[in-house]
Amino acid sequence: MVNKNKSKKMRALTGLGKYVFFAVFICIVTSCQHSKNNINENSDEEFILIINEKQNKLEIQNKESGNSFVINDESGRFSNPQISPNKENIAFIYPFEFEELGYVYIYNVNSNEKREVNLISLLYGTDDYVDKTPFELVWLNEALLLVKLGHGHGTIGYSNEIFYFNIENNDSGKLLTTCDFIEKINISNNMLEIILIREDDVIKDVERNEAARATTVIDCSEIYQLINNGEILELELDF
Fold first, then answer.
1. Distance between CA atoms of 216 and 186, rounded to whole angstroms?
2. Please, how many CA atoms are within 13 Å of residue 113, restricted to the half-sphere of its CB?
3. H helix count then E strand count, the chain
4. Strand 213-219, strand 38-41: pairing
5. Which sign, positive or negative, has the C-alpha torsion 72, 185, 87, 144?
6. How crowded is the C-beta side of 72, counted as CA atoms within 13 Å?
7. What percent of the chain has pLDDT over 90?
8. Which of 5, 43, 72, 191 has the smallest set of CB atoms within 10 Å of its CB?
């Protein structure tokens, strides 16, 4: 009797194991499908941007012809690609990994050409090692990128500087500095939005919102004026 009961329990567990295995199998397949179909599609654009996070692949597909072109399939992560306002260029950072120095890449949709930009060398005027790396990109217009730079090594991935880069003539320079730390930049409705974390709070657990934050917006017309005049904005906020 004891052996018989044990046998029933084992069969019951075996049956349950089949269901568990089947559920896990579905989850894996579904996960793979989702990772492959992370698509950025806009009705105003002539292309579809396909981001395959599982394979670290960035691909573009022409809507009309259906032809695809791989923008990046090298090992390692890349940043979220940014499409220029005129839909002609795509910018991203690669590699985009912890304690790795990244490069800015510009892919032209019309020519299918990709170029690497050593932004640190341009900004600092040297090919020597500089412990800086791009963390975030936003398009100011069709030719100008705003770039948030931070330390390439260390546990804190924040910066207190924003630079600009002109993809047409390689003109670049510092645009903004602050004594606090820049968490995120974004451009919307012709306004530059900057989210700051108070300097004294940067080592706190920002995921739990323990750090004090402040947001400011700057009209893009003021940004153009700063660039044209070669001026640097010193940003100070009250938290």
1. 11
2. 3
3. 3, 15
4. unpaired
5. negative
6. 30
7. 40
8. 43
CATH number for the domain spanning 212: value is: 2.40.128.660
Residues spanned by the domain of 13: 1-36
* Residue 203: Cβ-neighbour burial (10 angstroms; 0-12, 13-18, 19+): exposed
Q: Which residue has the higher pLDDT, 161 or 19?
A: 161
Q: Are the CB atoms for 85 and 142 separated by under 8 Å?
A: yes
Same domain assignment for residues 124 and 239: yes
Confirm whether 94 is domain-assigned.
no
Give 205's pLDDT tier (boundaries 50, 70, 90).
low
The answer to the question of residue 44 being in a domain is no
Which residue type, as a one-letter code, is found at position 173? G
Structurally, the chain folds into a number of domains equal to 2
Residue 89 and residue 49: Cα distance in Å, rounded? 12
Considering the domain boundaries, does residue 59 fall inside one? Answer: no
